[in-house]
Amino acid sequence: MTLFDLSGKVALVTGATSGIGSRQAIALSNAGASVILVGRREDRLTDQCKTLRDQGRSALYIVADLCDESCWDDLVSGSLDAFGQVDILCNTAGVNLRQAAEDVTPDSWDQTQTLNLKAPFFLAQKLVPQMKARGWGRIINVASLQSERAFQNGIAYGASKGGVTQLTRAMAEAWSSDGINCNAIAPGFFPTELTQAVFEQPELTQKLADQTAIGRNGDLSDLDGTCIYLASRASDYVTGQVIYIDGGFTAK
């Protein structure tokens, strides 16, 4: 359907070397978008770009550590030089150090807030002017179950993801009148590098599955539909929202 067609659009996806970011790149590419994959591990980015190109997709990568603020301008300018525009920004890079409250240091706190909260805003801020010039853009942030709930050893991460929820609303208020919609997804439990410690514990994995209304944990493909929806014309009148993709975890 044309409502979900992303042909002619360019998507920049951070955290694209694995997990949710990698899956978003695949979904957006399958919907017709050209994709720019951003991450720290060049070997993975190379493999992912090759896979997409072998399928006839348009893809390139940029190696960047978003904890290093000095790379943000180069990332934006490199993306715009490559395709001339960025229509969709997926702020998916993130970190969860899983430290107890008494073990959090100023450095670990700053690392978490910079990657999870600061980088998403400033990358968006740098890309918004060229979106405004075309009167259309999409920003997709990644919130969390911890945007609303407190989890053990998650104080810094939870603070950052609570911030993402409000950041998403504030971005929508600032930019939606210019045609730039901003929303967030809040995934439940999916098998990614960030949740590896959880999925290595069979009893805990089953307990979390039982907590959902559907009765299972997520598969990364469960994210595809919402990603394409929020990136496309189908969500023209949806902004400032956080969509929980959690199998009903927060409904119980």
Structure write-up:
It is globular and about 45 Å long. The protein has one domain (2-244): 3-Layer(aba) Sandwich (Rossmann fold), CATH 3.40.50.720. α1 crosses α8 (224-231) and α4 (106-134) packs parallel to α5. The longest helix is centred in the middle third of the chain and has 29 residues, at 106-134. Helices cover 43% and strands 15% of the residues. It has helices at 19-30, 42-54, 72-83, 106-134, 155-175, 196-199, 202-211, 224-231; strands at 10-14, 34-39, 59-63, 88-91, 137-142, 180-187, 242-245. α2 (42-54) links the parallel β2 and β3 (59-63). Strands 3-2-1-4-5-6-7 form a seven-stranded parallel β-sheet, with helices on both faces. The relative contact order is 0.15. The protein has 252 residues and is an alpha/beta fold.
In short:
The protein is of the alpha/beta class and 252 residues long.
Comma- or semicolon-separated keywords:
252 residues; alpha/beta; Rossmann fold; seven-stranded parallel β-sheet; 8 helices; 7 strands; 43% helix; 15% strand; globular; Sc_DH/Rdtase_CS
How are the strands of the largest sheet arranged?
Answer: 3-2-1-4-5-6-7
Whole-number mean pLDDT:
96
CATH superfamily: NAD(P)-binding Rossmann-like Domain
Predict the CATH topology.
Answer: Rossmann fold
CATH architecture: 3-Layer(aba) Sandwich
Helix content: 40-55%
Overall number of strands = 7
- Main structural class: alpha/beta
Order of helices and strands: EHEHEHEHEHEHHHE
Number of helices: 8
**What count of structural domains?**
1
Rg calc = 17 Å
Overall 3D form? globular
Protein name: Gluconate 5-dehydrogenase
Organism: Leucothrix pacifica
Family: Belongs to the short-chain dehydrogenases/reductases (SDR) family.
GO molecular function: oxidoreductase activity, acting on the CH-OH group of donors, NAD or NADP as acceptor
